[in-house]
Structures are given as structure tokens and as C-alpha cells.
């Protein structure tokens, strides 16, 4: 859940997350822009992206040898123009290998920045979001999230109640339809109090053994200078009871509602995770643990890690005051902007998920979600059982996330967790 938890080894220079090591075919930069991409645009892709970049200044992509192409929106059409357009506000330079990874979605713009693989010849990183969803749609065919035309409906063809909650007594078909439509699901009173107490005890035991800087926990500092863990990772490697959740019939049933080909991860991609909030009440943001709007594949690797399905077991009450999970309805399985004005956010289908101990949430990792700062109750624990695309085992080693296979990841100019105030 959230951005993959990584220990201090994040910057180690593995390169298994590259197109060349994966054995994916190289694509000619010139042929792609002169023939393949124009063919796609003329074949109907242009209509799927032009609306999103209407009125936006061109974007130009360059190679170190000076070759370049501009992506231009002109009267409802997207054209690819050789060279750097004079009115391009963003001009980026990538090495050939980095561009190939971008083409294959092994690295996003965030991943290119974090791996120090991009030069800004004109403009800055914040300008990239204007074109990023359209570019990724042109490259992969993944649709752009378009909330203005979002029309989510239930099985009876009625408008979907985005705040609906379920219980185990509800029809599985209805729960599955809701999850696959919105990207999240809330199921009440799944685990009995004694089971919640047992799992909370395991989380507390492991938290007590955790040390700042060691593998298995991520720490941050509050306004008073007090450091505490905000995430425990690979819990199943230290607790047979937590590891067994991956095969728990109820957990499996809830994961299965997503209808995705996924496998449990215990020894990689952070494994089973506990998200902790030990923060005192604060009126402002508290450094790292406050997750901005993001997708789990924010740095890249969506074809390797996604779909991801997270089954979250609430061990404490989670409310707006205690950093509840927020989801952007219908955004999973799409490419989406992650920078919006306050006015734009107010018009989006943002859903805050309030839960009690024993409740369970299911959410798709490639849907936009967030965990804002705490403003009230200072303590809560949530245990996540994670299921990934089986390809994760082909690329990562034990105790490794996909992000750690991106060459040089962590060497960029800023950290995704503090990238903006969105």
C-alpha cells in the first residue's frame, strides 16, 4: 500500500528493472516518432489524448545527439513534429535506454527524475504533468482518467454510491462490481475482536523490536523532534501468524473480488505491511509518513508489479483525524494527473474511508490514493496483506522492491514523498 517501503539500500545500482535486462526489444527512436506513433494517432489514439492536452504548450523529447521530436496539440489533434518546437515549454533530454524504459512504463517521469536520468533543457519537472498521462496513453494504450465523464453504475444500472459499505452477508457479485468499478471496497466487521487483538499484538511485538535505520521499518520525525516508525515491512518474515494471512480464506476471497491474476508477496515488494500512526496531534504536515496522492507504481514498473491488490485489516479506528485512506474513485487502471488545483480537487470524486477495528478495506495499488496528515487521534495501526502481479518474482530478489531494480533510483533531486503539496 502506498509507496513501496524501502530500507537504506534503496540507491544500490541494480538494473534488472530495465528493458534490456528483461529482454524486451529495443525500439528505434526515429522510426517510432516518424511512423509508429503517427500511425497510432491516426488510428484513433489521437482522439483519446487530444482532449487532455488541449491548449497545452508542446512537449519536446531530445536525445544527447541532438535529435528531437515535439508533441504538439493543434485544433483537437496531436501531431509529432521533428525537432524542438519554438513554443515548447518543457524540453527534456533522455539517454536512449532511459527513453526505452519510459516507453515500456518501466520508468515514469517520477522514476526518471529519481534515477537522475533526465536533463531539463527548458522548463522544470512540474511542467511534465501536463503531458505525462497523454504520453503514457500514446505509449501503452492505457486510458487517461477522465473524471468529468465518469459514469460509475451498479449492477442494476443505477448511479453507484461511492460511499457504500458492505458486510460479508452481501452478494459477492455486488462487492466485486463495486471494487472493479471504483478501485476500493469497505467491508464491515470481517475480523472478530479476539482476532484483531491477536494481530495487533504481533504488530506491537515487531514494532518493539524495530530499530531506526534497520531493514523492516521506516521512521520519521514529528514536530517535537520525536522519531517513531510509520511503516513496518516484511512482517510475514517475522510472524507466522501474519504470514498465514496470505492463505486465510477470507483474505483470499476478498482479494479474489478484484478478479486479477495476483500472488501473495511475503519476502519482496515490502511483503505484509503495517502502517502506523504514532503522531501527536499536529496542525501541520508531519514529514515523510503523510503520503501525497500517488499510485504504487509511481516510479515505474506497472507492467511488472500491477495489478496490485491490498487487503487492509483495521486494528484501530481510522477516521479523518487519524490519517484515513483517501481514494480517487475510478482512477485505477488508468493514467492520471497527480497535480490539481484546490478547485479541481473539490470537483473530483475523492472518497475518505472511515473504518473501525475488524473492518477490512480492499484497494487497487494503481488507483490514486493518499494518506494525509493526522489532525486528531494520534494512534492507529493498519495491517496490509499485499498481492502482486506474478512477474514481480521474475525481477526482484528477496527483501527487494521493484523501485530498487531501477538503475540509480534514489539519486534524483527530490523524494516522491515530499514532491508537492497536492
Write the topology of this structure.
Elements: H1 19-22, H2 29-53, E1 59-62, E2 68-74, E3 77-82, E4 90-94, H3 96-103, H4 109-114, E5 118-122, H5 132-140, E6 166-167, H6 172-182, E7 184-188, H7 193-209, E8 217-221, E9 227-232, H8 240-243, H9 249-256, E10 263-264, E11 273-277, E12 291-294, H10 302-305, E13 309-314, E14 325-328, H11 342-346, E15 350-353, E16 360-364, E17 369-371, E18 380-388, H12 392-395
Parallel strand pairs: 1-4, 6-7
Antiparallel strand pairs: 1-2, 2-3, 4-5, 7-16, 8-9, 9-11, 10-18, 11-18, 12-17, 13-16, 13-18, 14-15, 14-17
Helix pairs in contact: 2-5
Protein structure class: alpha+beta
What's the story with the biggest beta sheet? Answer: 9 strands, mixed
| Mean residue pLDDT | 90
- Strand % is 15-25%
How many domain units?
Answer: 2
CATH architecture of the largest domain: Sandwich
Helix content: 10-25%
Number of strands: 18
CATH class of the largest domain reads Mainly Beta
Shape: globular
The low-pLDDT segments are 1-13, 281-289, 413-422
Distance between the termini: 19 Å
The CATH H-level homologous superfamily of the largest domain? q2cbj1_9rhob like domain
Q: Count the helices. How many?
A: 12
Encode the helix/strand succession as letters. Answer: HHEEEEHHEHEHEHEEHHEEEHEEHEEEEH
